[in-house]
Amino acid sequence: MYPVQQREISGALQPALTLQADLAAGGVRRKTYLLVSIIAAALVLRLYDLTLYPLTGDEYGSLAEAKSLGLNWNSIVYSAVMHFWIQLGTSELWLRLPSAFLGTATVAVIFKIGEKLGGWRSGVVAALLAATSPFNIYHSQEVRFYSFFIFTAAAFMLATINFAWVKPEVKPNWRGRAWLLLAGIGLFFSHFIGPLALYVQGGSALYAGKSTRAKRFWLMVLLGLPLIGCALLLMPALHHQLWRVYQAFGNAPNSFEPAMTPVSIFNLAKVAFAGFIFIFGYHVYPLQIALVLAGGVLSGLLLLLGTRKLWKETPWGILPIAYLLALIGIYLVLDAAGGRLASGVSPRHVAFVWPMFVTLTALGITSFKKPALYILTAALLLLNVVSVRAGWQKEWTYGNAVDYREAAADSSRWLTKDTAIIHDGRSRDEIEFYFSKGAPLIYSWPYIEDRDLVARLSYQRLIFITDDWEPECRRDSDRLMMDLNNQYSIVDGRVDYPFFEYLMERKPAPESAGFALRRGTNQVQQPFSNYGIEFKDLHLPLSVKVNDVPLTVLGAYGLPNLEGSRELSLPLAQPVNTKRMMFLSNLIGASGLRSGETIGEVLVENKTGTTLSIPLRIGNEVLPWDQQCGDSARCKTVFQWRKRLAIVGQNRYQGAHRDFIAGLHGVVFDLPESQEVAKLTIRYSADLGQLYIWGVALPPAKSNADR
Question: Three-state SS for 682?
Fold first, then answer.
């Protein structure tokens, strides 16, 4: 071809080539804008209502570890960053910003993982799911290292894929190696399970890069080493030594060592529950059947399709299997080895699996073509939005979420110049963060050990606070409360299990031996016990009416109590003239008791020493908490609340997994004649169950109750 002709053809094609280049550049810009928009949306979702929930639980541990660097080597990198971060401020918003930024950065990393494994479309879907994930948003809004754990797990996954998935003739550059090294170090020090996450992803990368023959050998090695490790962890001698190491480097309590619990089917059920949390987050109630069933089935199907696509189209088919085996191993072994330290292994402890979970879901979606791809993406985005909204609405929470902000607001109304706050050690950090700095803080343990010290307290008011779910600690608090009742009366309070906050006022000297009555209603200012998790969904205080007489419910006293006593004695500070007694109660754990069976009695003693015995019979004067008083019963159900499914792990109780309407039942006892009542004694005689006394009143003889 002549040069002139070549120039003419090139000139003729130039507009077409320019148009093609412009279209390509425009496509790149649109893709960039879309990705930036997704990341921006992720940041907005993580910053929105960042302080909706007050600091809780382990967040205070993170603050302590940031202040005393080296206190806990579990995620020492995060603690080091926070050590300098808190020098610039300690507000809730400021403290949670690092986690929000890390959660946002995770979205970008997951986009690259999805793009690498399934193409640009898979990357976009993965980024959309990660940006709106209720699980990731939750951990991006807490002062805790789990957002860093998730980020480093995703970063190391991407680094290994980039490093291993190259052509044999192409050597990885220094940047790839540096990224791999940094991500690996970050993951190793991000969490105590970080080394296992490093092993799972790193081993899978080694396996993916081997020949077919070599893969068999590596598979045996990669599976064999964890099995040996699991067997060693369940050996009591090694378990003891590892616990000592954890105490030394993990800021664990020195007072006890958890006993191992047996492996059961319940451990495997926790694997499924971890998947539930990955999908719905921590605020979707598990018994929202329609939402949970639809979302669970859809997500499960997409996970299977994503696994199939990864297996058939990439050399990384081992990844889903490796992560699943790691997940099962953690719940079978670590959960048992951890014993009854808390509720065992929680979904946050296996958060390193979540990036793989999201990526597989995205691959499952992109295995479909349009319009099914768009419909499935929209469906999962809607599922995420509904789940995130549940958190904003505070519909339900997995675990405890005590609102110390509101508790501090209550205490501010109670504080006077002569008020002290007496607390257990578990609530000290929360009190120091939220409560007024003017009131003296008294640690309760010395007063529990030496009961004579209680008599030396000279404050006019005490604000009693405990926030402990352990039975032994609750028993100690109950004992201290009874000792304090010799000098103080409980006049106000707030309960949000396991948090109990009571305002106690010093009794006048002549009344120190008895219990005072509230003005107007003559409700006895009775003692309270720190009841168990059964009443987690009941938030106090509340006001109820028994026969048109208003009673204030600040707490309850359980019989038998934590020390086994079956009797509650209530000597009154002053005898009161009355014709009736009102009794507010319910029963738990009473499924083995027969209707009509007498389970106790109330003894009414007047000032002359005459005693009247009033029987308490099931279905008549008292009733279990899951029933309502019928027309033929003397009692009336005066207050009801929804008792929800309780996910309490190894601390489960009878009825924990039930969802029902619970109630408080009030009854009015007519006395034979008007008399001066000086003392009440309540006894529980049944071999099963527990009777809770929520209120006792002796209304004046001329009150509405006597008309």
Answer: strand
CATH class for domain 522-707?
Answer: mainly beta
Work out the number of other CB atoms within 10 angstroms of the CB of residue 612: 16
pLDDT value, residue 24: 60
The answer to whether 154 touches 104, Cβ cutoff 8 Å, is no
Q: Which of 96, 124, 101 is nearest to 111 (CA)?
A: 124
How far is residue 124 from each of residues 354, 375, 632, measured CA to CA in Å? 17, 15, 64
Whether 486 and 512 have beta carbons less than 8 Å apart is answered as yes
DSSP element (H, E) containing 175: helix 174-188
Quote the CA–CA distance of 81 and 151 in Å, as a whole number: 15
Distance of CA 594 to the CA centre of its chain: 37
Peptide bond into 560 cis (omega under 30): yes
Q: Where are the domains of the chain?
A: 28-392, 402-506, 522-707
The pLDDT value recorded for residue 228 is 73
Collapsed DSSP state (helix, strand, coil) of residue 227: helix
Q: What distance lies between CA 587 and its chain's CA centroid?
A: 27
Produce one character per residue of 548-573: b if its CB has 16 or more CB atoms within 10 Å, e if not. Answer: ebebbbbbbbbbebbeeeeebebebb
Q: Which helix (H) or strand (E) holds 236?
A: helix 236-249
How many other β-carbons are positioned within 10 Å of the β-carbon of residue 615? 13
Cα–Cα–Cα angle for 137, 118, 320, nearest 5°? 70
Q: What is the DSSP string of 429-481?
A: HHHHHHS-TTSPEEESHHHHH-GGGGGG---SEEEEEEE---HHHHHHHHHHH
* pLDDT tens per residue, range 44-88: 999 999 999 999 888 999 999 999 988 888 889 999 999 999 999
Evaluated on CA atoms 510, 513, 519, 521, the torsion sign reads negative
Other beta carbons within 10 angstroms of residue 384's beta carbon come to: 25
Give the pLDDT band of residue 702 (cuts 50, 70, 90).
low
- Alpha-carbon distance values, 523 to 122, 454, 552, 580, 585 (Å): 65, 26, 8, 12, 14
Residue 692 tokens, joined? 């809770």
Structure tokens given for 102: 């890390």
Helices (H), 48-133: 58-67, 76-85, 92-118, 120-131
Residue in the structure block whose two tokens are 């053809």? 9
In terms of Cβ atoms closer than 10 Å to its own Cβ (0-12, 13-18, 19+), residue 33 is: exposed
User: What's the whole-number mean pLDDT along residues 239-247?
Assistant: 65
What single letter denotes the amino acid at residue 195?
A: P
For every residue of 16-45, which 3-state class applies, written as one string? HHHHHHHHHHHHHHHHHHHHHHHHHHHHHH
- Do domains 402-506 and 522-707 share one topology? The answer is no
What is the spatial distance between Cα 236 and Cα 462, in angstroms, rounded to a whole number?
45
CATH code assigned to 402-506:
3.30.110
Residue 673 has, within 13 A of its CA and on its CB side, a CA count of 4
The tens digit of pLDDT for each residue in 384-437 reads: 999 999 999 998 988 778 899 999 999 999 999 999 999 998 899 999 999 988
Residues β-bridged to residue 584 = 666, 695
Given a cut of 80, whether residue 262 has pLDDT beyond it is no
Q: Mean pLDDT in the chain? A: 88
* pTM confidence score: 0.89
d(CA 532, CA 703): 35
SS3 588: strand
Predicted local confidence at residue 505, as pLDDT: 95
The residue type found at 377 is T
Instruction: Check residues 4 and 634 and name the one with the higher pLDDT.
Output: 634
Based on the number of CB atoms within 10 Å of its own CB, is 80 exposed (0-12), middle (13-18) or buried (19 or more)?
middle
Instruction: Judge whether 532 and 642 are in contact, CB under 8 Å.
Output: no
Helix residue ranges per DSSP H, 48-91:
58-67, 76-85
- Give the three-class secondary structure for 692: strand
